[in-house]
Design goal:
- It is a single chain.
- The chain is α/β, with parallel strands linked by helices.
- It has one domain: Rossmann fold (3-Layer(aba) Sandwich), CATH 3.40.50.1820.
- The protein has ten helices and eight strands.
- Strands 1-2-4-3-5-6-7-8 form an eight-stranded mixed β-sheet, sandwiched between helices.
- β6, α7 and β7 form a beta-alpha-beta unit.
- α1 packs antiparallel against α2 and α5 packs across α6.
- The chain is globular.
Length: 292
């Protein structure tokens, strides 16, 4: 093999090795590894912007250069409501900003010190902060999308579908054009599981699960499911889809082959689109539902 072709193949081999490594890693270590493969050079990036009074009420913004009237996307991380950090998801900010969207990647208050609905209220407050400052970054304040992975998918869907949270945060419901849940636990009985510490003592699924709270004017939803997910079971998306359909809300549920609970979000990264279709599904949905 010539030196020229060898140099061209080396980056490809590295990305393939990264993809294999991700499949075997825990969520935090996998995503930290992935961040080393992305470069935000050329983007407008501002970090640790405060949207509320708590130390966890901060977000990072990634904006395309010379953005003008672009859709605005809020990404909410997972971690069983007890862990996770926006810094791990720099690859999401890079990916969505490169696609042309002003992107906020947020932190939120964590359980068990902070239980439902605290972290949902944080998602609504972060969305309000992004909307109020959208034009500063070249975004359209009335062209909002909310994306969440795992527990963050719960937060994203609940924040938008339960009419209470946007109203209390001061976000017009008409400004939210769509919601994307990635492997989210929208409909399950937490009472005998470790994640019960994220919910109030004595509460029931009927009181807290997003599939019980869908307003009839909810915006379009995309529910992405990993075919090999053994952390959040597919029934969550099936139940959520059924609840949205009962309310008359547009919804698409898509099962992505070969992906698991970690790789479904890793596939949002530009270097790892070969893993699966997450990134393209997200972009196609936003392009379909963005303001004209």
């Amino acid at each position: 093999m010539s030196r020229f072709s060898f140099r061209r193949v080396l980056p490809v081999l590295g990305v393939l090795a990264l993809g294999v490594s991700l499949a075997a890693c825990s969520a935090g270590s996998a995503e930290n590894l992935l961040n080393r493969a992305v470069n935000t050079r050329g983007l407008k990036v501002v970090t640790d912007q405060r949207y509320g009074p708590d130390t966890r009420n901060v977000l990072d913004v990634y904006a395309p250069p010379n953005a003008r009237n672009a859709p605005v996307v809020l990404f909410v991380h997972g971690g069983s409501w007890q862990g996770g950090d926006k810094a791990i998801y720099r690859f999401v900010g890079d990916s969505l900003a490169r696609a042309g969207y002003v992107t906020g990647v947020m932190n939120y208050r964590l359980a068990p010190q902070n239980r439902y609905p605290t972290y949902v209220q944080d998602a609504a407050a972060a969305l309000k902060w992004l909307r109020d400052r959208a034009k500063t970054f070249g975004g359209n304040p009335d062209d909002l999308f909310v994306v969440g992975h795992s527990a963050g998918g719960f937060n994203a869907v609940e924040a938008v579908d339960n009419e209470r949270w946007l109203r209390e945060a001061g976000v017009p419901i008409s400004a939210v054009r769509g919601v994307i849940g990635i492997a989210g636990p929208y409909s399950y009985d937490f009472r005998d599981l470790p994640s019960r510490v994220a919910f109030p003592e004595g509460s029931t699924p009927d009181q807290v699960m997003p599939d019980r709270h869908v307003r009839r004017d909810a915006p379009p939803h995309l529910l992405l499911v990993a075919a090999n997910d053994t952390t959040v079971y597919p029934q969550n998306a099936l139940n959520m889809e059924a609840a949205l359909k009962r309310a008359g809300a547009p919804v698409t549920r898509t099962v992505l082959p070969r992906l698991n609970h970690i790789t479904i979000v890793a596939a949002l990264a530009r270097p790892l689109t070969f893993l699966g279709g997450t990134r393209q599904q997200v972009i196609d949905f936003i392009e379909k539902h963005r303001k004209g």
